[in-house]
Design goal:
The chain is mainly α. It has seven helices and no strands. The chain has one domain.
């Protein structure tokens, strides 16, 4: 779990720094150079790190705590659209571990996501994740 927190912490620190830098350079320069943002570049690295972390997980790992952290971090960033989309997109790497959850825990996570993101605000990744939680919760 420490490695996961470190990956998230590094990414969130970089995102905050890039956000501050972007604000100071917005306006004229943004019109001249509208290409990919540095945040989208950094998000690719973040996604790779999360994918590697998730691939190394086993059923013996504390999946409840890991999913609680991953979901919670995505919900906390809800106010910042770009960051929220990145943090919820990596949920896809944790779908294989949903069957390791207790059904009650899966139901609680599903409620948390449904309360945090109304249907119209959900991405396809969220829908797949939520569907998996509901399937596990029904067992």
């Amino acid at each position: 779990m420490g490695q996961l927190r470190e990956i998230y912490s590094d990414f969130l620190a970089d995102a905050e720094k890039l956000n501050r830098d972007r604000r100071s350079l917005s306006g004229f320069f943004k019109l001249l150079f509208p290409g990919k943002t540095q945040l989208s570049n950094r998000s690719g690295t973040f996604a790779e790190e999360i994918a590697s972390y998730a691939a190394a997980l086993t059923e013996e790992d504390d999946v409840d705590s890991i999913l609680c952290y991953v979901i919670g971090t995505g919900l906390e960033a809800k106010g910042e659209l770009a960051l929220s989309l990145i943090l919820t997109a990596v949920w896809q790497y944790f779908v294989p571990f949903i069957p390791c959850l207790e059904p009650e825990c899966a139901q609680a996570f599903a409620r948390q996501i449904e309360e945090g993101y109304p249907l119209r605000a959900r991405t396809p990744v969220m829908e797949v994740f939520l569907r998996s939680l509901h399937e596990r919760g029904a067992q």
